[in-house]
Structure formats: C-alpha cells, structure tokens
C-alpha cells in the first residue's frame, strides 16, 4: 500500500511539473520573446542582409532616422545614414513571425498540400 501512495505522489508531482512547463511555454515565453517586458519603440532592426556566413548589413531605425551598419564577428561599423524617403518597408516584412507561421499553418494543414500547385 505504501508503494502505491509513493507512486501516486510521484505521478502527481510529474503532472504538476508538466502543467507548469506547459504554462510557462504557452504563456510566459512568448511574452518574453516579443520583448513586451523590455520593449522600447525607439530602435528597431528593419532589415538584415547576409553577405557571408558571419558578415551582414543591417538597416536600423533609431527614432525617425535610418542607419546602415556593417557587422562582422569582431566589428560593428557605421556605414551611412539613409533618408527615410529612400526606404520601402514591404508589408510581409512588417508582419510578425507568429502571424506568418499561422498563415502557413492554415495554408498547408487546412488548405491541403495540393493547393500550392494550383497557385503557380
């Protein structure tokens, strides 16, 4: 009888850990990843262009100004300031990752795999 109670306590503890892990991953982690805890609206990486495996160009918005930065494994270098009129931000780039993922899920899981052939 004592072994059964110990086993039930073990199962209860395991269930509690699973529920806590699920709640953390479901509710707390997305909140932190979006940056809602530390979000500032003054700086934003608009676009990244990889030039080589560890070398990239970044277009960064700081306030109302835009800067082009070059980044290597050892250096971050200011290249130039770009006028706001010269920059076009496409709608797809403005969407968040969660929105894009939901759209793809609907397309492939609910729309069927055959639908992508019909679009071409």
Overall residue-averaged pLDDT value: 81
Number of domains: 2
Give the helix proportion (percent range).
Answer: 40-55%
Q: What spatial form do the alpha-carbon principal axes imply?
A: elongated
**Percentage beta strand:** 25-35%
Order of helices and strands: HEEEEHHH
Secondary-structure-derived class = alpha+beta
Rg over C-alpha atoms, rounded to the nearest angstrom:
23 Å
Strand order of the largest sheet: 1-2-3-4
Euclidean distance between termini CA atoms: 66 Å
**Helical stretch count?**
4
Extended strand count? 4
Largest sheet: 4 strands, antiparallel
List keywords for this structure.
alpha+beta, disordered C terminus, 46% helix, 120 residues, elongated, 2 domains, four-stranded antiparallel β-sheet, 4 strands
Please characterize this protein's 3D structure.
This protein is an alpha+beta fold and 120 residues long. It has two domains: 1-39; 41-86. 46% of the residues lie in helices and 27% in strands. It has helices at 2-33, 91-94, 97-110, 115-119; strands at 43-52, 55-62, 65-71, 76-82. It has a four-stranded antiparallel β-sheet, with no helix packed on it. A hairpin with a 4-residue loop joins strand 3 and strand 4. It is elongated. The model is unreliable at 114-120 (pLDDT under 50).
């Amino acid at each position: 009888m004592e072994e059964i109670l110990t086993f039930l306590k073990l199962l209860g503890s395991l269930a509690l850990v699973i529920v806590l892990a699920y709640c953390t991953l479901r509710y707390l982690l997305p909140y932190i990843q979006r940056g809602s805890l530390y979000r500032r609206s003054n700086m934003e990486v608009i676009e990244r262009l990889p030039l080589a495996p560890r070398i990239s160009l970044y277009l960064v918005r700081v306030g109302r100004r835009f800067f082009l930065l070059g980044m290597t494994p050892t250096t971050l270098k200011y290249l130039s300031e770009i006028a706001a009129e010269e920059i076009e931000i496409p709608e797809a780039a403005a969407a968040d990752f969660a929105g894009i993922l939901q759209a793809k899920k609907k397309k492939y899981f609910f729309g069927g795999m055959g639908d992508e052939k019909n679009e071409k």
